[in-house]
Amino acid sequence: MSVHSSSSIKRVTTHILQEMKDRGEKISMLTAYDYSMAKIVDAAGIDIVLVGDSASNVMAGHETTLPITLDQMIYHASSVVRAVKRAFIVVDIPFGNYQGNSSEALRSAIRIMKESGAHAVKVEGGSEIKESVSRILSAGVPVMGHLGLTPQSIYKFGTYTVRAKEEAEANKLLEDAKMLEACGCFAIVLEKIPAALAKQVADSVSIPVIGIGAGGGVDGQVLVMHDMLGITQEFKPRFLRRYADLEGIMMEAFGNYIRDVKSMDFPNESESY
Ligand code: KIV
């Protein structure tokens, strides 16, 4: 059933997301990168659509999120914007387009907002990118932070294992979350950190905290759409719950089509003019 069946669709805003945290209603967030998938996930009633730089992995086949460009992110984001009527749309600023200096960060955010029509941007990191975050916010662009396992820094970490298990890293993460809140970020993503720390962060800041591999004590959850649909079969972290086996369904459909073409069962008379 579509949430769009009623004629008036109320758009999700940062204000509504804050109200959801305040009343304890969990926020649902999924990635999308193209028009057709974004249309379905929006009609299902998702609160936030993230045009993640995970597009670099699941759409383009790169090993990391680093290669995707600002132009490519804008292409994905504008396709999603054309499809989505209700959800709040957040777009990742890709690696290399905000860390250098705050002017470049602002230019990148403005390009995303102007050229795609999205509603907010997401950036990875804490104190290191404070100036960039503040500069983007000063232009009236909502910013979502991202702490913990930040995939754009994968070559610094060396592995995709759980972050902030040690006290020093956990303390820095908590301080970074408070800093992002003080700067004016509307929400923070926490990726792959201990559930107890994630809950402590969610309890320590007033803005929504969305987790991926961060347990159930946060204000909402996000997954990569292709992972939860079972399209990416080789990615199997503990935090991933699969809600479908689309690879299996698609393989069967493609196999049936190939068989029918070869056997000349398709097209039949009723499928011809
Ligand atoms: O790019 C992405 O999909 C993300 C999520 C994993 C939060 O940043």
Cα Rg? 20 Å
What structural class results from the helix and strand content?
A: alpha/beta
What is the mean pLDDT? 97
> Percentage of helical residues?
40-55%
Instruction: Write down how many β-strands occur, each being a DSSP E stretch of 2 or more residues.
Output: 8
Percent in strands: 5-15%
Unreliable spans: none
Ions, cofactors, ligands: which are bound?
3-methyl-2-oxobutanoic acid
* SSE run: HEHEHHEHEHEHHEHEEHH
The strands making up the biggest β-sheet line up spatially as 1-2-3-4-5-6-7-8
List the main descriptive attributes of the protein structure presented here.
273 residues, globular, binds 3-methyl-2-oxobutanoic acid, eight-stranded parallel beta barrel, alpha/beta
Structure description:
With 273 residues, the protein is of the alpha/beta class. The chain has an 8-stranded parallel barrel with strand order 1-2-3-4-5-6-7-8, surrounded by 7 helices. Helix 2 (35-43) crosses helix 4, helix 4 packs parallel to helix 5 and helix 8 packs parallel to helix 9. The protein contains 11 helices and 8 strands. The model has no long low-confidence stretch (mean pLDDT 97). 3-methyl-2-oxobutanoic acid is lined by residues 31, 50, 52-54, 92, 189, 191, 212, 222, 224.
